[in-house]
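Bug: token stream looks shifted between consecutive jobs. Job 1:
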Amino acid sequence: MVTAIILLKAVRNRINELAQELADIPGVSEVFSVSGQYDLVIIARVRDNDELAELATNRMAGIEGILQSETMLAFRAFSRHDFEGMFAVGF
């Protein structure tokens, strides 16, 4: 499984609609509207790099309102949830 974080700058009056359109794309796990330099953050979870390329270059390219994107590949996940599971053995 490949996990990617995609940062988007969007047309201001399309942010909410754009977020919903993106959330409906297979492979998109979550979409967050955020403050700061970017408008939306997408968490994508796909089978392989080819599927990620399809998502980022073909499916997203056809959606109106995306001004700029930056895609980052996740190497490893670290979360509180993972650590709680390790120490909950036998409870």
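Job 2, same session, no restart:
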Amino acid sequence: MIPGFRGGAPGQRGFVLVATVWVLAALMVLADYINSVASADRERAHQAKQALQDDLDARATEATLLYLLITGRMSYRGLVLERRQHFQDLDAPRALPPGDGVVAVAGEPYAGLGRIRFSVQDESGLVSVNQPLTVPFRAALLHAGVASLDVALLQARLRDYIDRDGTLSLNGAERSGYERAGLAPPSNWYLASPVELRKVLGALAAVPEDQWPRLRRVTTGTITNGINVNTMPLELLTALFDGDEAAARRVAAYRELQPLTSAVAVGAVAGRPWRPAGGFSPLPSKRLRLAFWREGGRTRTLVGVAKTLGSTIAPWRKEYRYFEPAVGGAEPVREAATPLFQST
């Protein structure tokens, strides 16, 4: 026995043992908490880094696409991609080579940098909300689930909304009607984008809420002299063929190989008459709608671009920019035939 050591009672030794176990358990809980906090911080840091990278990739994709659109040339289908650019006198008889690929301008999704996806839509392949009395606009509303009577009502009210006078048309609505409904009065000017269509009296009640994204995809604020079947989204083609998707797909497959140059040709390929009134535009216009979104993201960015190659200020002009919910689809993402969209 060690001199001076008296030892503790059995109960005291048990208490010390239990206390030690509790201290160890508390330390384990604390260590686990610290580890979970550290893991959460690492995950948040990773998400913040990925969000920053996605934002950089989106901006880089937009800048690269603008560069290609301005410096490249267009075919009837879209932007011709070339690994080596070709320059030629406009008076030269020799035709330019077909290029390495095409970025179609009918709204097809393409892979951009990183996780970014993009699409380009020629606005002459869409229906103008500023031409409400046309057959294509009526077809777009019907395809979005608007009842026939409501379509006629919306056409009249939209005409009153954008005209420059206060004269009330049949079934239309002017300032007094908006005031009674507690709404802002008509702008008496053209809509800047399809989003503004929601401001027209009765539009929110007539168009089902879940159909607004579909309607926005096939409409534009740009006034066109003729509609372009070569750059029209498949959904709008289907609407203009009264819901006949098979006819629309025949036209879409045909234009992958060669252009459609007349309404008669469209009807022959579709196997049914092409009825929309108005002019026929076989080539893309100078106004394009660019869309950018992250793979699996909830929103996408839409940018309206007008090519102004003859301007002394800039070769393009951005006319609008807004955000909308991203709508997922089963359509496969295409690869653009250019190394500029290949991440290193």
